[in-house]
Amino acid sequence: MRKIEFTLLVTTFLLFSSSLFSQEESPREIKYEKTIQDTGDVIQIALPATAFISTLIMDDGKGSWQFIKSFGTNLGVTYLLKYAINKPRPDGATDGHAFPSGHTSTAFQSAAFIQKRYGWKYGIPAFALAGFVAYSRIEGLNDRHDGWDVLGGIVVGIGSSYLFTTPYKRDHFKLTFSKENNIYQLGLLYRF
């Protein structure tokens, strides 16, 4: 009798544990993960667009050029590393190129640009959004990346922005000089 009880107990445990650890997800879980992944995709595009458009709105030509250089460097380094390392993806996709996460590097490049150029007041929300993008790459529907891929993307993104970006300083004082009919004028203008 003890053997039957033991066998029944082991069989019940195995059946129950296989349902606990199965890879099949409920429709609710799939919808949740798809929402996370799609939201991360949108933010990954919105952050660099916001950063670049901000430079145009503020008439910050120097900032626009710094953003273009850091964005281009970020893309170049990210894809160079993706093809050089050729790390397989956690979801089993055969395309490789998991390291570093391109979504994460783009989001963190933009957040670092915003923070370094315009300060922490704007940088904190930008980094929070970039952090969500990183989370979406690990927790999204297809689990495209692991923690190392995301960490690599963070380092490449922040590094490429910090390489080219300087703080934005609006010129408040302007020294003027004019000469007309042998009259010399020296002035000081202050912008509020």
Which features does this protein show?
single chain, 192 residues, mainly alpha
Mean pLDDT: 77
Reported for the largest beta sheet, the result is: 2 strands, antiparallel
Shape: elongated
Number of helices: 6
- Helix % is 55-70%
The radius of gyration is 26 Å
Order of helices and strands: HHHHHHEE
Number of strands: 2
Percentage beta strand: 5-15%
Could you please describe the fold and organization of this structure?
This protein is mainly alpha-helical. The chain has one domain (26-190). It is built from six helices and two strands. Strands 1-2 form a two-stranded antiparallel sheet. α3 packs antiparallel against α4 and α4 (102-118) runs antiparallel to α5 (120-139). The radius of gyration is 26 Å and the shape is elongated. Mean pLDDT is 77; it is low at 14-22.
SSE layout and pairing:
Blueprint: H1 2-20, H2 27-57, H3 61-85, H4 102-118, H5 120-139, H6 147-164, E1 173-180, E2 183-190
Antiparallel strand pairs: 1-2
Helix pairs in contact: 2-3, 2-4, 2-5, 3-4, 3-6, 4-5, 4-6, 5-6
How would you concisely characterize the structure shown here?
The protein is 68% helix and 8% strand.
